[in-house]
Design goal:
Layout: H1 3-8, H2 10-13, H3 17-27, E1 50-51, E2 58-59, H4 60-70
Antiparallel strand pairs: 1-2
């Protein structure tokens, strides 16, 4: 279950606090301690194609957009 669909159900369950508590207990996303799900792009939030080198924390698409502003040069 994605985080967005998890939060959408809250609007329907607000009137029933007991059912809401049970829903949250059993359906909340798992807390992550390692893996690709922790590394997200600072700019857009993507998980894949992540560049962590030099402490960038960007996906490759965002890196291409702002590489010249940061000071990277394109060779070839």
């Amino acid at each position: 279950m994605t985080t967005s669909s998890y939060k959408k159900a809250f609007t329907q369950l607000r009137a029933k606090p007991v059912k809401l508590a049970k829903y949250v207990k059993h359906n909340k996303p798992k807390e992550r301690s390692c893996g690709a799900a922790l590394k997200k792009c600072k700019r857009c939030g993507r998980n894949k194609a992540h560049i962590q080198k030099y402490g960038l924390g960007l996906c490759r698409q965002c890196f291409r957009d702002i590489a010249k502003k940061i000071g990277f040069k394109k060779y070839s």
